[in-house]
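Reopening this ticket.

The earlier resolution said the output was attached, but the attachment link was broken on my side. Pasting everything inline this time so it's all in one place.
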Amino acid sequence: MDRDHAIRLLGSHVRDDYTRRHCLATEAVTRALARRLGHDEALWGLAGLLHDLDYEEVGDDGDRHARRTVEILAPLGFPAAGLDAILAHNGDHLGIPCRTPLDFAVTAGESITGMVFAMALVLPSRSLADVKASSIRKRLKEPRFAASVSRERISQYAGLGLSEEEFVSLAVAAMQQADLEWPEPGPT
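Inline output:
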């Protein structure tokens, strides 16, 4: 599956602008992690992009979230490692621990995006460009800030052999450099 196909698929399942931006941001973070760690950037990016493909369909049903995405992607030949990572990102509900670098990357990567977006919203500029990694690291220790963002999921970066400083800096930079506007997919 190429990125254009993935964008069309995501666009047909996800209409909410925030969820689309979250998926694009997760793609940016997972691609940056793959680049940094020497893994398959395309696979990691697609797993990050599509991890919440089912969110509008299943909502907060933790027992179905990610499983439904796998039901959609498996018949399309999506790689098993990507399917496993998508399941693992909801592993606390499904009883599936992170096992591979890709699992850790999608879980930590998708979770840190919520912190970065929340930080941007409290800045006078409300701009991602003004978010500082040091501010995110400080806010990670404040449970009331972005309270719905799981610090435990974010901490999965440790499974990648990165320090908190490395992970947060990479994630913030990736999101700042990414185009988080919903793209027009290429021709079918």
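Reporter confirms the inline version is readable. The two ends are 13 Å apart (CA to CA). The chain has a mean pLDDT of 95.
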